[in-house]
Amino acid sequence: MNKEDVLILAIESSCDETAASVVKNGRTVLxxxxxxQIDLHKLYGxxxxxxxxxxxxxxxxxxxxxxxxxxxxxLDDLDAIGVTYGPGLVGALLVGVAEAKAISFAKDxxxxxxxxxxxxxxxxxxxxxxxxxxxxxxxVSGGHTHLVIVKDYGEFEILGRTRDDAAGEAFxxxxxxxxxxxxxxxxxxxxxxxxxxxxxxxxxAKIEDAPYDFSFSGVKSAVLNHINKCKMQGxxxxxxxxxxSFQRCVVEVLVEHAIAxxxxxxxxxxxxxxxxxxxxxxxSAMEEACKENRIKFYHPSPIFCTDNAAMIGVAAYYEYxxxxxxxxxxxxxxxxxxxxx
Amino acid sequence: MKILALxxxxxxxxxxxxxxxxxxxxxxxNYKKTHSQTLLPMLNEIKNNIQLDLNSIDAIAVAAGPGSxxxxxxxxxTAKGLGLALDKPLIAVPTVDALAYNLYDTGEDTVVCxxxxxxxxxxxxxxxxxxxxxxxxxxxxxxxSIHELLEVLNGIGKKVIFLGDGVPVFKETIRxxxxxxxSFAPAHLNRQRAGAVGALAGIYFKQGKIQxxxxxxxxxxxxxxxxxxRAERLAKTENA
Lengths: 341, 240
Prior knowledge:
- The complex is a heterodimer.
- By secondary structure, chain A is of the alpha/beta class.
- In chain A, 45% of the residues lie in helices and 19% in strands.
- Chain A has helices at residues 38-42, 49-71, 90-107, 116-127, 167-177, 184-192, 217-233, 239-265, 280-292, 302-305, 310-322, and strands spanning 7-12, 17-24, 28-36, 80-86, 111-115, 135-140, 145-152, 155-161, 269-273, 296-298.
- In chain A, strands 3-2-1-4-5 form a 5-stranded mixed sheet, sandwiched between helices. Chain A has a 5-stranded mixed sheet with strand order 8-7-6-9-10, with helices on both faces.
- The longest helix of chain A has 27 residues, at 239-265.
- In chain A, 55% of the residues are buried.
- By secondary structure, chain B is of the alpha/beta class.
- In chain B, the strands form 2 sheets. Chain B has a 5-stranded mixed sheet, sandwiched between helices.
- In chain B, helix 1 (35-49) packs across helix 2 (69-86).
- The chains are: A alpha/beta, B alpha/beta.
- At the A-B interface, helix 2 and helix 3 of A face helix 1, helix 2 and helix 7 of B.
């Protein structure tokens, strides 16, 4: 390790993954350990906050120690500790925040609180060394749907956001309705391959005066109504067709909004981020649309799309360079706004 | 032997440093700010005021439950982070035991009964006495209805000293249903204090009752609401 290298230990516990990572100079991931709780939450059809928080405290030290070991560094080598402090489930966030604060306090290492979405966006820097702001980023996950201009590292202009359900949330709800279970995204993506994406036309919401905002509750309701109608009229419910048609609708809206924004603002770089960014249909549709419009397309590998700490380490690095430091009173902020510090 | 003790199990946030038989520093706050914002700044203030070298600590003690689920996790995560960073063991002190240890040598005819408001009409409680100058558990800490607890106390038949944040909530119920002589501990003794956590931890440490920072987790005494409701649902379908 070079003396000028900046090493950051990052911790993420905002939802149902306990994660720790060591990142070098904001671009090189030395370790990326994720302890997933999905199997626990499957029993309940979604993330149960109290169960998530309990699992975090059970696993967090082990995950951190593994991350340090895998990276072959000790706490004494670190320049900063980055931690997600919002948005997310407050009880879950608090575990990571209290742990990170205690370690940085005991070791006298600077503490950098990180916005979870800034982390997701920053995941794109890991495998695309040439990518630098400004660029447009579509963040889509179970909890978030944002269309953002990344003006500089840590500087954002939000063009659009969802008015109701997040895209991933709509996937989960539709998946539950057609009996696929939790988490819905990957299951719908898989089942869609066997279905006809044009079997049904579900509505695509347009919001007046807010061309980049999203709304997914309408399409979700339309799917539920369709299922009810089939049941009442005794018609067969073709799950694969429903999944494929629903997914086409959501993907088209996401792609249309993102491409429109890129063109309107004259941006020639477009990235996607968040859990739904590993959806294959979204990836290929976005790639194709970008190609047509001569926009360079970026996306992280699936392992950096899901909640992970490597992305938090990358974001923490750029915040660290900007001088962002947090005190021992850092709290979890469940509704933290992007760009807020 | 130097012990750093934390208690954020209830409304009180408390930090103490204990060196052998001396309480070197104790900072207790019963105010509405969240523990996440107060606990570490309080420790930092103690550290600066007594020029505490964190590496000189032998163990980190924490009130490990029961209590507010979130409060317990803030205390435990702080203790686990300190333990990991300093490479020191943790001592998990049962919250109710530590509350009882606010008192001492209360006499043969008296029991100590901390009560913490556990919501859902229950209290986190336990029953204790002192024998040969040691804290002895008469009834292990548990979540009980106040009426159940009072029945047990009436059955034991000894004088009772009540303390804890459950006292203001259940004072009337106690007045109406407690058949034995009782009293309430005064303000300086009736809430969680890290000093008591540290003092008990000192005894545990000598007995070898320590944990690694990795293995420590709070003892909630209760499953989560979602787990409880699921178990109830499953039991119902089984019976049907």
